[in-house]
Q: What sequence folds into this?
C-alpha cells in the first residue's frame, strides 16, 4: 500500500487518505518551526489561505518543501483554485485520529511564543 494516494490530474495534489495518516509523520511535520508557523496561521484563520499569503524567511524551494511535508503527512489539504494553491488544516481528520493532539500542540506553541517573546 502506497503511503500517498496517486492522482491522475497534474493539477491535483496527492494526499494520504485519512486511514493512511500516521502519528510519527504528523509529529515530524509539526516539529519544524517554519511548518508550525504555517499551521498556526491556518488554525488562526480557520479557512483556506494561499501559499502566497505566507512569507517565510526561507527560499521559495524550501517553502515548497515545507508545504509538501505538511501535505504528505496529512496535516494540510492543498487544492488549486485557479492559479492559487490553497491550504487548509485537515482538522477533522486529525481530531478523529488523534483527539486533542492538534489543539494541544497549538496551545503549546502559543505558550512557547508568549514565553520567548516575554523574555525579549
A:
Amino acid at each position: 500500500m502506497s503511503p500517498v494516494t496517486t492522482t491522475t490530474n497534474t493539477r491535483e495534489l496527492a494526499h494520504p487518505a485519512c486511514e493512511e495518516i500516521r502519528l510519527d509523520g504528523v509529529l515530524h511535520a509539526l516539529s519544524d518551526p517554519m511548518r508550525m508557523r504555517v499551521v498556526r496561521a491556518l488554525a488562526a484563520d480557520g479557512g483556506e489561505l494561499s501559499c502566497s499569503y505566507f512569507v517565510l524567511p526561507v527560499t521559495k524551494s524550501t517553502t515548497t518543501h515545507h508545504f509538501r511535508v505538511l501535505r504528505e503527512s496529512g496535516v494540510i489539504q492543498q487544492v488549486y483554485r485557479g492559479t492559487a494553491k490553497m491550504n487548509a488544516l485537515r482538522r477533522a481528520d486529525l481530531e478523529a485520529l488523534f483527539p486533542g493532539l492538534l489543539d494541544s500542540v497549538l496551545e503549546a506553541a502559543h505558550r512557547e511564543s508568549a514565553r520567548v517573546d516575554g523574555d525579549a
